[in-house]
Amino acid sequence: MDKITKTAALPESAREFGFYVDGAWRGGRPLFERLSPGHGVPVTLIPKCTVEDLNEAVAAARRAFEDRSWAGLSGADRAGVLLRAAAILRERRDEIAYWEVLENGKPIAQARGEIEHCIACFEMAAGVARTLHGDSYNSLGDNLFGLVLREPVGVVGLITPWNFPFLLLCERVPFILASGCTIVAKPSEVTSATTLILAEVLEQAGLPAGVYNVVTGSGRVIGQAMAEHPDIDMLSFTGSTAVGRSCVHAAADSNFKKLGLELGGKNPFIVFADANIDDAVDAVAFGISFNTGQCCVSSSRLIVERSIAAEFEQKLAEKMTRIRIGDPLDEETQVGAITTDAQNDTILGFIAKGREEGATLVTGGTTLEIGGGRYIAPTLFSGVGRDMEIAREEIFGPVLSSFHFDTIEEAIEIANDTIYGLAASVWSQNIETALTVSRRVRAGRFWVNTIMAGGPEMPLGGFKQSGWGREAGVYGVEEYTQIKSVHIEFGNRAHWIK
Ligand code: NDP
Questions:
Q1: Which residues form the active site (predicted)?
Q2: For residue 335, what is the DSSP state?
Q3: 8-state DSSP, 383
């Protein structure tokens, strides 16, 4: 491993945050102390809000929705706020990246790149705010004219996870705001800082009070109360399939709130013998190691044509050992720390299970001693049976399982042999092969001869048990609207009672 050269110092003491309701900062709650996953030292103190705090935030979001201070603005005015927020984010990029690294453990260079993407999300959403429109029917006869309006859904609850705290937030917040909705956000308790910093940014950009509120605390208390809340009109949840399912029950048992769910994945990376092998090797090494594999679209199942499998796995193992794992504050680091103790245990548990079930450990499988943090080497298992746990469960860590196929039908069948359908990738120089696979594999995001490419124009979301609805792009704004049809009659009514 390369020598560690820190480019930023750790904070001298943990930074204390308040929570944000109705345009004002509040405090006075017990505090959750967050330790940096990469260093093991306290970095932030986050309020443990109560359900009463949540109720006040929902009430503020409701008032701000009903008083039309946001929904009643023109698209151009909403776009103005979003563009100012983008400019402020650009100025504060390094600071936001720093807090993201301290709470999440991802490499600083990667965090900066993610914030660039967040800025692009705000700019994209500003464009959609101006172009969002409905439809009209001029075909209903001379006496009737039909308008189809898109109206904002109302108060949106937003529950985000700890793996991409700011990126996932910004793939949602600007698009929700573009629609005219108001927001109560609840970040994961372990990564709340940057969601709170966004409140400062939006206030400075001119967002009216009550439109964006942040209530911090645990998922079991605040998240569950949001899912059950009778005055939240829509809930956008990103996280585990198990909690996603509990949100569906809570929505059904409360007010039938609309749901957007982005859940787990077990994503196939399919390589045909005619692919550019070196590119595919590099891409899958990246796809499984990026964000330490704590990534819903990580390439966790390699499905490689048998004739090239041995050569492919050997090249891949060699590349995986050269990934620079280290201190997340080091500019050279490619893979940082595992975000939580619980996730560390989960990943190590799956590695042990893979060995127990008889898969061959080709490389990795070990923990690394770096500073006071939690680190796991990128891991490759070959000879993985399709019924093994490591083949079926979302590990959410840098653990790749390799499967072999002989025909295109078999490749498609293995790829679809999962309850999930979040993302997939195919590698082939043959356009017929690539297009056939992209049409037949059931996944919400598909990459041909690339991986994790995209921009805020492209919608995100899953098939099957990977979720409901789409985020980002035009679709991501429309998701937060509901359709109203307006019928306008001309001339005199033909009376029913003569
Ligand atoms: P969770 O689904 O528990 O957490 C995701 C978010 O939901 C967090 O903000 C969490 O808050 C909140 N939450 C927790 N419980 C509830 C609840 N009952 N009602 C409403 N919200 C709740 O994921 P974990 O952190 O436990 O991770 C477990 C597994 O989930 C991972 O191993 C991975 O497989 C998957 N996962 C998938 C993600 C994805 O992007 N698709 C993201 C994260 C996890 P808090 O953290 O404060 O408890």
A1: 262
A2: B
A3: S
**Closest ligand 1 atom, residue 393 Cα:** 34
CB 340 within 8 A of CB 162: yes
- Asked whether the predicted pLDDT for residue 1 surpasses 70, the reply is no
CA–centroid distance, residue 459 to ligand 1 (Å): 22
Residue 419 structure tokens: 């309850």
For 91-160, the DSSP string reads HTHHHHHHHHHHHH---HHHHHHHHHHHHHHHHHHHHHHHH---EEE--S-TTEEEEEEEEE--EEEEE-
Q: Residue 159 C-alpha to ligand 1 middle, in angstroms?
A: 9
Structural domains in the chain, sorted by start = 15-263+466-484 (3.40.605.10), 268-448 (3.40.309.10)
Task: Give 343-383 pLDDT, tens digit per residue.
Answer: 999 999 999 999 999 999 999 999 998 988 999 999 999 99
Q: Active-site positions?
A: 262
Q: How does pLDDT run across 38-73, given as a tens digit for each residue?
A: 999 999 999 999 999 999 999 999 999 999 999 999
Q: For the whole prediction, is pTM greater than 0.90?
A: yes
